[in-house]
Amino acid sequence: MMRFCFSVMLATLLFSSCNAPMAHSTNTSAGILARTGVSIPAPLAQLPTPLPPGLSLDQPISSDDAAAIAIWNNAQLRADLAAIGLAEADLKDASLLLRNPRLDTLFPVGAKPFDLLFNFPLEVFLQRPRRIAVSEAALNQLAQSLIQNGVNTARDARLAFTDLWQAEQRTQLAAESVELRDRIMKLTGARFSAGDISELETIAAKSDAASAIELHQRSIGDVQLARQRLSLSLGLVVGQSSYRLSPPSILLRSTEPLDVLLEKTMSARADLRAAEIAVTTATKRAGWERRRFLWLSAQLSSKGVGNSGVLSGPGLSFEAPIFNRNQGMIARAEAEVESASRQYLALKQRAAFEVADARGQLDQARLSFANIRDGVLPPLERSVRLAEDQYKNGDVAFLFVLEQNRAWLDARQRLIDAQAAILRAQAQLERSVGSK
After folding, report:
1. Pick from 422, 434, 303, 297: which is nearest to 359 by CA?
2. What is the rounded distance in angstroms from the CA atom of residue 281 to the CA atom of residue 132?
3. CA–CA separation, 294 vs 54, rounded Å?
4. How far is residue 227's CA from residue 166's CA, in Å, rounded to a whole number?
5. CA gap 85, 71 in Å, rounded
6. The whole model's pTM is what?
7. Domains annotated on the chain, with CATH
8. pLDDT tens digits for 288-323?
9. What does DSSP say about strands 115-121 and 296-304: parallel, antiparallel, or unpaired?
């Protein structure tokens, strides 16, 4: 009996020590680096410095710098990445023997004989491989989801950067517009005093100047709000972080064909990979649930029998699957397989739409930018110079010069909006495809 117990205990120790291989957060870090071009600090358990190595807020930051700082320092992303430790713990728990041997003993008191029952669960040997496979698949699914979170974080930082840059540029143009319309208002006032124009024209000029002042004040508030959103995305202290933006670069090269982008999307997007793994996980869980109705235990019974001493013998204990064969959990697992499969197909359709939509917006924004830059601004710039030359020669009134400058400012505003649209579409397209 002692040899049998010792053998069972030794086998238990050896078996429980064979843990499943642990996944590491470095795989997630490598996936984020491959898709965004920026890395996250390691180890995740330690709080990093606020900025990645080589970056400083004393120097203007670019859109790429904003993405790097966000992935390095974003609090929500780090909270999401910490969840991988929970999945690793579940995998470790699945690799262990979840049920310990049970020993029941009745001491010989009075006429009651000595009785000992050693019960060791055997179903864990059959269920353990499937349980580990399910936990590993769930861990891989979470890792891919976290990679997608990193891609989304980079995209959000680039969008917030674009919002702040656009707001600052619009504020500068709004200040020029206020100055220009103030000059127009003063000139119309002087012409009204001289009797050259009616009062109606002066009222229109005053209203236009007041509108310009209101737009300038609103743009200043937009800058403050955009800076707060960018600071939050970067993981910096809102309201206490001072930094400047460097002018973003506008890429006007042709975009790859849609079919090429879609092919890249199907292989690069981490959320699609996570959805595929979700189907695999649900399928493995369904197979595990179909075999969970079997409960089998090995027994060793020892009992005192009169003058014969203590007699021992092995045995088995199992539940007869007559009424309960785990039908409910099996049905649930099969429904999860169908749900995961449909979710995967829906995500593929949505991913294809996102890529096509982002590419279309990028092409449209680039076309608009090129038309304004090459077709709208040059004639307006020339008209401003000609108006100034004619004014110097006394051929036109100064009000005509101001009107030409106002049209030029409006076109410059449209050019800034087109630049911002290109930057946003680029960020969305990178996120939609799943790689730079």
Report:
1. 422
2. 11
3. 59
4. 11
5. 19
6. 0.77
7. 41-433 (1.20.1600.10)
8. 777 776 666 777 787 777 666 777 778 777 777 777
9. antiparallel
